[in-house]
Amino acid sequence: MKYIGGKWKAVILIHLIEKKRYSELRKACKVITERTLSLQLKEMEEDGLVKRTVHTGKPPLKVEYELTDFGKTLIPLLEAVARWGRETAERNKRIKVVE
């Protein structure tokens, strides 16, 4: 649970199943504050789940995030949790599920 515990790590990780630029990730996770997103990404990078790549050259600076091979081992778990959440929400009619 150290690796994926907390309110936002699983949400961030599921968005990183596909590589994303920081700005894309920020839009996908708009309910997460920028500070929290940055801190969570840093923790997951230190834990070896996420790889951060900085592309230098002409401004603007481009930063991309993606799952490491170790992080990719979580994909089946993340997909199962997301599927369970959708099914539970539909069954309880709590929220409208958007694919």
Concise structural overview:
By secondary structure, the protein is an alpha+beta fold. The protein has five helices and three strands, in the order H-E-H-H-E-E-H-H. It has a single domain (9-92), classed as Arc Repressor Mutant, subunit A (Orthogonal Bundle), CATH 1.10.10.10.
Any idea how many domains? Answer: 1
User: What is the overall shape?
Assistant: globular
How much of the sequence is in beta strands? 5-15%
Total beta strands: 3
Task: Assign the CATH architecture.
Answer: Orthogonal Bundle
If you average the pLDDT, what whole number results?
90
* CATH third-level topology: Arc Repressor Mutant, subunit A
Give the helix/strand class.
Answer: alpha+beta
Low-confidence stretches: none
CATH class: Mainly Alpha
> Can you write the helix and strand succession as a string?
HEHHEEHH
Number of helices: 5
- CA(first)-CA(last) distance: 27 Å
Looking at CATH, the homologous superfamily is Winged helix-like DNA-binding domain superfamily/Winged helix DNA-binding domain
